[in-house]
Design brief:
Number of helices of chain A: 6
Number of domains of chain B: 2
Number of strands of chain B: 0
Mean pLDDT of chain B: 95
Number of helices of chain B: 10
Largest sheet of chain B: none
Low-confidence stretches of chain B: none
Strand content of chain A: under 5%
Largest interface: A-B, 74 and 77 residues
Low-confidence stretches of chain A: none
Structural class of chain B: mainly alpha
Oligomer: heterodimer
Radius of gyration of chain B: 18 Å
Distance between the termini of chain B: 35 Å
Shape of chain B: globular
Strand content of chain B: under 5%
Order of helices and strands of chain B: HHHHHHHHHH
Mean pLDDT of chain A: 91
Number of strands of chain A: 0
Chain lengths: 121, 248
């Protein structure tokens, strides 16, 4: 979806941001580095790190944006668990864009790739 | 609470959609479900909360095979130990859930339909709790259970050809559940819990408040109701999903 949004908005981005590259996150995404730091701190389960990242983001943006960022992060804690607990495959394993992005990000090594058979051979 | 808390609480006060989605889910928890009583549903939610900080789960996740770790989670008066273990795995090691595990639970008496409901209950409360954690706010208290028995109802046309569990076919919506997804949509992740339609409704309502409504998904620029633009949202979504090793 990040790539689709970049395409529609004609924004040049670097997908390495999804792998944690902070320089890449800065490219084309307003406050990208701070949002990436917030996301990673959230996932680290280190509450001090999270507080620090949240304050940095708040100083640069607004409380309303923090609420939304927390919501998006919490939302995607749910979606992966629905997918993996029910074993659903990716809906379309044949789209060239999907294939390219999975290869670029190296995610075919993830355990749950086994649920999308053509990804796990 | 941190020094930022008053500002964040004030901003949250202005998000009635988030508050009502959370309150609606807590109300939903307090009612008997499809296959679980209200007490069982609340016990499932309570166990989900324990999983986040479970040391045994850390040990199991680090092990080459979860079965090599013989220790068991603390027993519950309400839930079977195998169900407790599955709740914890959904929270802490979901990528290694297998069809064989879900089939084995069925042989032990947990039907696939009850399993679907279990998954839905776990992921909804987990998402709500994670939202609070992200803001350094205490999670909402769980409700008191209301009396009653599970409805044991299910949609009329379930198929078992996608994933580990039965679900409504993409084109199989009936009048009673036509609100679950827009005509022609039916992505697997939306259908995944459709054997228990109210759980789809629950997570969709939470998702609509936390992220976007399904109907807004096609707007790849910026939803009118949001401060974050879509690029910013998808950066967060993508990084959280990558760390979760989400293939889907």
């Amino acid at each position: 979806m990040l790539r689709a949004s970049a395409h529609v908005t004609e924004t040049e981005i670097d997908l390495d941001a999804l792998l944690g590259d902070k320089t890449a996150a800065h490219r084309g995404i307003v406050h990208g580095q701070l949002l990436l730091s917030f996301s990673e701190a959230f996932m680290s389960d280190d509450q001090q790190r999270l507080a620090s990242a949240r304050t940095d983001l708040l100083n640069a943006t607004s409380p309303e944006l923090i609420i939304e960022a927390a919501g998006v992060a919490a939302n995607f804690q749910r979606m992966v668990r629905i997918a993996d607990a029910t074993g659903i495959p990716v809906d379309d394993m044949t789209s060239p864009a999907g294939i390219a992005i999975r290869e670029a990000l190296g995610i075919t090594a993830f355990e749950s790739a086994k649920n999308s058979p053509s990804a796990s051979h | 609470m941190t020094a930022d808390a008053p500002l964040l609480l004030s901003a949250l006060d202005n998000r009635a959609d988030i508050q009502s989605a959370i309150e609606a889910h807590l109300d939903y928890l307090s009612e008997p479900g499809y296959w679980w009583t209200a007490s069982e549903k609340i016990a499932i939610a309570a166990e989900s909360r324990l999983a986040k900080h479970c040391r045994l789960c850390d040990e199991k996740k680090a092990a080459l095979s979860r079965r090599s770790v013989q220790a068991q989670h603390a027993p519950s008066l309400i839930l079977d130990e195998k169900i407790i273990d599955m709740i914890h795995q959904i929270i802490t090691d979901q990528g290694r859930i297998t069809r064989a595990q879900v089939d084995a639970l069925e042989k032990d008496g947990l039907s696939k339909l009850a399993y679907v409901e279990l998954v839905g209950l776990v992921v909804c409360i987990f998402s709500i709790d994670e939202f609070h954690r992200a803001l350094d706010l205490a999670p909402p208290p769980l409700p008191q259970p209301k009396p009653g028995v599970p409805s044991q109802s299910q949609p009329p046309s379930l198929e078992q050809s996608t994933g580990f569990v039965p679900m409504i076919p993409k084109l199989g919506l009936t009048v009673a559940n036509e609100d679950l997804w827009p005509t022609g949509f039916g992505a697997n992740v939306v259908r995944a819990l459709s054997a228990t339609p109210d759980l789809v409704r629950q997570w969709k309502r939470i998702a609509g408040a936390f992220y976007l409504h399904l109907e807004e998904m096609g707007n790849l620029v910026q939803a009118n109701s949001r401060v974050l633009n879509r690029l910013q949202m998808e950066l967060i979504a993508g990084r959280v999903s990558a760390i979760n090793r989400c293939f889907y």
